[in-house]
Amino acid sequence: MASPVPAKYKVGLVQMAMSSDTAANLQAAIAKVEEAAAAGARLVCLPELFRSRYFAQREDAALFDLAEPVPGPTTNALGTVAQRAGVVVIAPVFERRAPGLYHNSAAVIDADGRLVGIYRKMHIPDDPAYYEKFYFAPGDLGFRAFDTRVGRIGTLVCWDQWYPEGARLTALQGASVLFYPTAIGWHPAEKATQGAAQLDAWRTIQRGHAIANGCYVAAVNRVGLERPGGGEGATLDGIEFWGSSFLADPFGAIVAEAPQDREAILVAEVDLARIEEVRRGWPFLRDRRIDAYSGLGSRFIDPQP
Asked: Cβ atoms within 10 A of the Cβ of 165, count?
């Protein structure tokens, strides 16, 4: 018989700095999963593409060698630690689906070590120092929710966090928490003039997803300055990843937040009764006009002549 879903449980958000040593990054992640579990977390989420430095700062076909299948080395190793520690793990991976076909994915591993499924990042950016369209095909599995030992959760990835449609469609499948493994930061030359506004926009949009959907939202970022090597589009400035991982409750209140400038393991509580409480008072799902949203399937609605 399946264990009952807990009414309350703690999540562990792992804010990491990455080295150029992929094996060392995996071992560090394993240790941090175990540390979060020892602190009471029953679900642990790692940051986007944690096995390596953020390689999409430049275009280099040799970097496809970083990709791996799912199941594969990362999911196998984290499946072992998930089972040993008795925790659910969200494991972002650079997925090698077939020769020449790669995705930016997140694997969901249950507390018994079983791979529940994968989410493939749907929105793929192409901006200075974020040349992801060179590396990743857009996700083709849609927005998904996964049943785990702690209940139904959803995971999206980084650039997805700016799109209310993805959050809504995941929440409508019954996800109580939306997890966003992330790699986002400042271009150092812009930080003084635009940095505060960029960070505030990032935090605000995700708090908005929590409020609009009446669910918890967890953002899990990396931290530290990473400079690319050579290659097409490379810059010497790099990206200063801004940390600031956080958990927001169903009305957007920040439950816990990590610092901007160092590693942290954020352990914070999810209370499913809070979802019920907020949705009763602010019944956005009840009042949605599902008969009036057909235009959302259009790229843009041109004005009629």
From this structure: 12
75 to each of 29, 80, 206, 245, how far by Cα in Å? Answer: 12, 8, 27, 23
Residues forming the active site = 48, 121, 158
* Amino acid (one-letter) located at 176: S
Which DSSP letter does residue 53 get? S
pLDDT at 3 over 80: no
**Per-residue pLDDT tens digits for 188-237:** 999 999 999 999 999 999 999 999 999 999 999 999 999 986 555 555 68
Tens digit of each residue's pLDDT (9 = 90 or more) over 28-63 = 999 999 999 999 999 999 999 999 999 999 999 999
Closest CA to 177 of 193, 198, 156, 163: 156
DSSP 229: -
Q: Which residue ranges make up each domain of the chain?
A: 9-281
How do the residues of the chain divide into helix, strand and coil, expressed in percent and rounded to 5? Answer: 30, 30, 40
CB-CB neighbours of 210 under 10 Å: 25
- pTM value? 0.96
Query: What phi and psi values does residue 44 have, to the nearest 5 degrees?
Result: -125, 130
Homologous superfamily of 9-281 in CATH?
A: Carbon-nitrogen hydrolase (3.60.110.10)
